[in-house]
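Readers of this paper often ask what the protein records in our data store actually look like. Below, we set out a record of this kind in full and without editing:
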Amino acid sequence: MIARIGFIGLGAMGEPMAAALRRAGYDVRASVYRRRDALDRLREAGVTEAADPAELAGTSDAVVLCVPDAPQVDDALFGPRGVTAGARAGLVVVDMSTISPVASRVFAARLAERHIDFVDAPVSGGPVRARQGTLTIMVGASPAAFERTEPVLRAMGTPHHVGPVGMGETVKLVNQIIIANVMIANAEGLVFAKRAGADLGAVRAVLGSATASNYILAEWLPKTWLAGSFDGGFAMDLLRKDLAAALDAARTMSHPMPATGLAYQLYTTRSARGDGALDYSAIVKEYEYNDGS
């Protein structure tokens, strides 16, 4: 039974996820990765501090990671004062970052040599649902590791066991592939309508009951581009990172993904123009550039 949890990565997602674990009654400890302010806030909720990941691992039944990408996972696990420096046999590592499934399988194999289980469990839902504890969680794990960690994951959302290690990241990347391309399709179509003189409100109303209806059109764009702001939301550079991971995994399977390759280039172009920190709906600027707006 898991009672003591170490948490690494208190960013926009990690902070509310750690808070959700504490509300569920777990003994949660965390170490500073980048943000001292987040840990200070969590200490008020009963989260205690450890000096580094090695100390966390030595006093935890499970260690949860939520960091930007595979190099940060590698450092947190195998760095000089990483998890493996303090871990005991039987520890389980739950990586809730979004990284390449290729990297996840490599990490799992290296940890297995030390008798440490590995679970990849990326999430979907954003900071709001992280605060609510209602994230969608895609889990790659052995049946035994999933059974052991399921109660922990349920404190943060709804876990879906989708297969062995690496499959959680695979399913998450499917989500990212689709939203990246659907966002571009929405931007391209709506700017086409705008330049033709159509009323975008009327266009959206019609499409809402047509075959082009989609979540981004109905729910996301009204809060971002159509509301006149690209602040908050899901940063374009994070989506670019996820698309790079998807393309990396596709290469290992000799699987062509031309639309995703083009999407990656479009988002990269927009990022190079200074919009990488904005919500990924800012891709619409690529289409508005010459429309006179």
